[in-house]
Design goal:
This protein has three domains: 185 residues, Rossmann fold (3-Layer(aba) Sandwich); 179 residues, 3-Layer(aba) Sandwich (Rossmann fold); 98 residues, GMP Synthetase, Chain A, domain 3 (2-Layer Sandwich). The chain is of the alpha/beta class and 547 residues long. Strands 1, 2, 11, 12, 13, 14, 15, 16, 17, 18, 19, 21, 22 and 23 form a 14-stranded mixed β-sheet that branches. It holds the Pfam family AMP-binding_C. InterPro entries: AcylCoA_ligase_PEP_1, AMP-bd_C, AMP-bd_C_sf, AMP-binding_CS, AMP-dep_synth/lig_dom, ANL_N_sf, ATP-dep_AMP-bd_enzyme. This is AMP-binding enzyme family protein.
């Protein structure tokens, strides 16, 4: 039985070596080639002196070297740290320093961008450079730069004129042994932005990743003939889940770095894609385009926020033979719940029930279970609960806490992840998201979920995107501010949207301030609406007396 994340690839290579595993920009690797490549990467990393549990960061767009470096690091007994390619140099340097990265895999172009910040990463001793060897690399004082080389079987051999040491030349004559790890050892660190402060590194074990892959691929019904389009950043748990789900089922991952939404539909058609995952802002755009009648999509999934009913209706009309899965997850537990497609028409606002091999509870502040339809905090227990936040005992103890004793004879407590999300469970066991504790608006003595206001805005048919916030107010505590963009073909006016809110909401939930934006609302690196930057913007505006 597979217990380590890289073994998902190796086991499939043993069963079906010639099955397609990875496709990127015309290059396709079968499972035998991918397994050999990650084995070569593991040997190379070990030859560079990588110790057990040390961190290997991968700062590349989605390409074959990205996947091979990540899973090769795991095979070596190290920990991979995928870094979002959209991050700026200072943000990358923070991650490299925070988790004491030893080896960085990146491109020559990206190394040039990082050149001025790597001095602040004292543990970094080696940079492995992927990409075209003819692009000159800028030397970094005190850091060894090594070309990816041809030893992985994926890159062209270096010419003798190359001024940099080739990766395969750094290997000794005998193959070093991989460090022994077990399923409870670290496998990856994913950095996630919080509502305040610097991003936190969520530490995931091999067990977390394998259990998540088997659970998700099971309820999605993935099989070896599936071709999954990987659009989302691999630094995002939902994006990484696409890869692990593929490898758990022996399917093929098609990597894509999309520029235009129209390109996604074309790629789905050209690559005969059967599974597609995206976040709500992207689904809104995709729902507004025409899809071919012969679309091969077997299923689509949504996570990272609620998909609005209007978007669901448009997608169901455009893709009548495609199953839609609504999913909820948090990086600290990888995946948590899903709504089965057959439930979508009846309860489109639900986030479903717990995924296989997980238990999701709704608890009061004192740890006791909530009654049906009583709001409480979503708490996740089981094999997918992460190991905590890297180098942050304080935040770890706030989020990862012992459950109340379930069996009096068990002396050791069980840790669960307390999500910070407020949900309710109906009498049939289906969960409904209400809001994040740190996003809740406290106005006139009421607690208001931004999602309730946004649902009304979307339901009006007037808006393309909407985001509600609480802003300081001397009498109300917080007033409600609503930012929105026009729906396609609409010339939205603030008064019209405000009237729609007044018609559907009680007075205390009606926005005091509505702002219509001509440009799309900003995105964070994972493609979600960047609530953090918008909240900061509004804080500055209202601090100046805009209310």
């Amino acid at each position: 039985m597979t217990q380590l994340i890289h073994e998902l690839i190796i086991e499939t290579a043993r069963r079906t070596p010639l099955a397609p595993a990875l496709s990127c920009q015309g290059l396709q690797l079968d499972y035998a080639a991918l397994a050999a490549a990650l084995g070569g990467a593991a040997v190379a990393l070990l030859a560079l002196g990588l110790e057990r549990g040390e961190r290997v960061a991968v700062y590349l767009e989605k390409r074959e070297e990205t996947v091979i470096a990540m899973f090769g690091a795991a095979a070596a007994g190290a920990v991979f740290v995928p870094v979002n390619p959209l991050l700026k140099p200072e943000q990358v340097a923070y991650i490299l320093a925070d988790c004491n990265v030893r080896i960085l895999v990146t491109s020559r172009e990206r190394l040039r961008q990082l050149h001025g910040v790597l001095a602040g990463c004292p543990d970094l001793n080696t940079v492995v450079l992927a990409g075209t060897p003819e692009f000159p690399a800028v030397p970094v004082p005190g850091i060894r730069c090594i070309d990816w080389g041809d030893s992985l079987g994926i890159a062209a051999a270096h010419t003798q004129e190359s001024p940099h040491e080739s990766w395969h030349e750094s290997q000794p004559g005998s193959r070093p042994e991989a460090h022994r790890v077990i399923d409870s050892d670290m496998a990856a660190i994913l950095y996630t932005s919080g509502s305040t402060g610097k991003p936190k590194g969520v530490v995931l074990s091999h067990r977390n990743l394998v259990a998540g892959a088997l659970s998700v691929s099971g309820y999605l019904g993935n099989h070896a003939q599936d071709r999954i389009l990987c659009l989302l950043p691999l630094s995002f748990d939902y994006g990484l889940s696409q890869l692990t789900t593929v490898f758990a089922s022996g399917a093929c991952a098609v990597l894509m770095n999309h520029l235009l939404v129209r390109d996604i539909i074309e790629t789905v058609e050209q690559e005969s894609i059967t599974g597609l995952a995206a976040v709500p802002p992207l689904w809104i755009q995709l729902s507004q385009l025409s899809w071919p009648l012969s679309c091969t999509l077997r299923y689509i999934t949504n996570s990272g926020g609620a998909m609005q009913r209007s978007t669901i209706d448009k997608l169901r009309a455009a893709l009548p033979r495609t199953q839609i899965y609504l999913m909820y997850g948090l990086t600290e537990a990888f995946r948590s719940t899903f709504l089965a497609p057959e439930q979508l028409a009846r309860r489109p606002d639900s986030i479903g029930k717990a995924i296989p091999n997980a238990e999701v509870m709704v608890l009061r502040n004192d740890g006791t279970p909530c009654a049906a339809d009583e709001p409480g905090e979503l708490v996740h227990r089981g094999a997918l609960v992460a190991m905590g936040y890297w180098n942050d005992a304080g935040k770890t103890s706030e989020r990862f806490k012992p459950l109340p004793p379930r069996q009096p004879g068990l002396p050791l407590p069980e840790l669960a992840v307390w999500s910070g999300d407020t949900v309710r469970r109906d009498s049939e066991g289906f969960l409904y998201f209400i809001g994040r504790e740190d996003d809740m608006i406290k106005t006139s003595g009421y607690r208001v979920s931004p999602g309730e206001i946004e649902d009304v805005a979307y339901g009006s048919g007037l808006v393309g995107e909407a985001a509600a916030f609480g802003v300081p107010h001397p009498m109300l505590g917080q007033a409600i501010a609503l930012l929105a963009t026009s729906a396609p073909g609409q010339a939205l006016q603030a008064d019209a949207l405000l009237a729609a809110c007044k018609a559907a909401l009680p007075g205390y939930m009606v926005p005091a301030w509505v702002d219509i934006r001509s440009d799309a609302l900003p995105r964070n690196p994972n493609g979600k609406i960047d609530r953090k930057s918008l909240a900061a913007e509004l804080s500055r505006v209202f601090a100046g007396g805009a209310a």
